[in-house]
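--- STAGE predict ---
source: upstream dedup step, 1 unique chain passed
mode: sequence only
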Amino acid sequence: MDLILWRHAEAHVLRDGQDDLERALTPKGERQAQRMADWLNQRLAHSTRILVSPALRTQQTAKALDKSFKTLPALAPDAAADAVLKAARWPDATEPVLVIGHQPTLGQVAALLLSGQAQDWSIKKGAVWWLRRRDREGLVDTVLQAVQAPDCL
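--- STAGE serialize ---
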């Protein structure tokens, strides 16, 4: 199973009285999202399930892909790593899953799957971490397939 973690692109700073879910992408964030979407669209399988936080910044990031996606409240900011894994049906999903979400949650998911420990790993804004669960000769492990930052595209 492939699990692709995409942190939303750069967003405006939270203003006084503003709900965190209402923060929009900056112009730089819009460019980051489009560059990463172009990269992903060359690599994603057609069967990829796309799951997105309800926050405006993640919705805008997802729209750059120009594909249908499902919005899940369980992926909102400060979601638990376990909630992300449950939504993705890790490790049993038969199709690749792309999750567009937030820090620190996405970094915690990556740490848990790659090291087996709950840690706060940092994923850069707009970046993708592509994880793959594989079975080789009866040995099951999770490997880091790719890491891509929008500034490198």
